[in-house]
Structures are given as C-alpha cells and as structure tokens.
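Re-running O-methyltransferase to confirm reproducibility after the cluster update. Everything else is unchanged from the original entry.
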Amino acid sequence: MSIPEEFLKQVNALYQQFQAHDAQQSDRLNRYRNIEPESAHLLAVLIRAQQAQNILEIGTSTGYSTLWLANAAQSTQGHVTTIEIDSERTKQAQSYAEQLQLRNLVDFQVADALYFLKQCNEIYDFILLDAERDAYVEYWQYLPNLLKKKGGLLVVDNVLSHASEVAEFIALVQESKQFMCVTLPVGAGLLLVTAN
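Result of re-run:
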C-alpha cells in the first residue's frame, strides 16, 4: 500500500512551515528541529516492513515524525506513544494529528523522557530516539529492556550531523554483545539497532 497523496501533501506543507520557523530562530532550543523528510519516509517503510504495532517516540517536538509513525501504524494496526517535555509543542503536535485524522493512533505524553523510561514496563517493536543527545548515554541503561528481543528496532536520528555528541552512546551500543547496529547516511544520519 502506497502512502496517500493527501497525507504527503499535508506533511510536506507542515515541514515547510516548520523549516520557515526554524530559519527565524537564533537559539537552537527555540527551533523545532524536525526529522528530515527522507528519514521520516524510511521510518514509515521500516515500520511497515517490520509490521510494528507498539511504537515509541522519544522527542515529539511539533509532531512531524509522529505523523509519519502514526500513518505507518495505521497500516499495521499499531499504536504510537510519543514523549515530549514541552507541553506547548505537544499541544501543537496533537492539533496536527487531529488535522490529519491520526489522533486516535497516538498517545501524547508530556514527560521527562528519563523518568518515563525508568517507569516504563512496556515492550516496543519500534523505538525512535530523537531528543536531547546529551541524555542518550543515560537512556541506554533502560532502552534495551523496552525493545522487543526478537525483531525489535531502535532508530536514532542525527548520528552523522552530530557525530561527536552521540559518539559515547554509539560506543556503548557497539560494546554490547546483545545488539548489532548500522549507520545509514539518510537525512542527518540514522543509527539502526537490533538484538543479535
């Protein structure tokens, strides 16, 4: 099943809007910093290929990637849980999900990701990590327990664009005998991690 034209048109318009906003911001933290369209498209393909049903996103921002995850979840009878610490951005993301009629597929949570990961007992088929990179090392002690042992996939964004910031995290993943990983030169660079 191909991705509907109407969905592509709407997410493309949103992406242009988000890019225009970011271009006006001098402070990095005020930017939306959404995932690149080619990366989002690949995530949607991976979810469909994997037939992932329980999907976690860490770092919603304004929900551009969330829309792609939800669109993919629609075709796998799946569901997305997305975590964002900024309540205003979560409200924005919720409104876009409503506009695209994907709201029922997404559980939006306003929370500190580390607190969420510490408390979480769920097992996820697919996890997208696209948050503040200086926290990834701390997240790693919890992420392996949340990823499905057979066929689960963790995808980490910005591993080429911000290579030095994620170097320690990637080293931890590579040291683990439990996991194998590969970096794809798509968008800002995606790290794919799965169990051995």
